[in-house]
Amino acid sequence: MRLHDAFSGLFFMALGLAVLLIARHFPQMPGQEIGPSTFPTLIGTCMMIGGAIVAAMSLRRLRKSALVTLDPGWYQPLHLASVVFCLLGTLVLSIWFEDIGFPLGALVMCTGMYLLSGLRKPLIFVMAAGFVAIVALVMTRMLYVPLPMGSWL
Fold this sequence. Notes:
Blueprint: E1 2-3, H1 5-23, H2 38-60, E2 68-69, H3 77-100, H4 102-116, H5 123-142
Antiparallel strand pairs: 1-2
C-alpha cells in the first residue's frame, strides 16, 4: 500500500507539534541559556517545517496521483498473514512483556516473520536466536537497557 506524500507531511507536522508542546513543559536550567527544551524544540520545529514542505509539494501534484494505491503484492495471503502476525504479536508483547520476556518474545516474533516470509530452512531458528542474542547483548551490556527476561525463567 502506498499513501500519498501529503499524509506523510501531515504526520510529521503533527509529530513536530507534539514535540513542541511537550518540550514547553521541560524545566529551565538555572544560569544556562540552553536548557533541556532547546534541542527538542529545534527538532520539533524542523519536523513541522519539513512536513509542511512535503505536504505542500505533494498537494501541488495531487491531481496526478491517487491518495492511496494498493500494491498487487498485498493480495497475497502470506503478506496479509505477516501483517496480522506482527500486529497481534506486538499487542501480546506490549501487554505481557514482563511475563513473556525479551528472549522468548523476540525469538517467537523473529522466527514467525522468517517463516511467513517464505524461509523454510532449519537455519532460520539459528539466525533468529543469533539475532535475539546480539540485540540482547547490545541493549543490556552496551546501552544498559534492562530487558525483562520473563517469569518463565
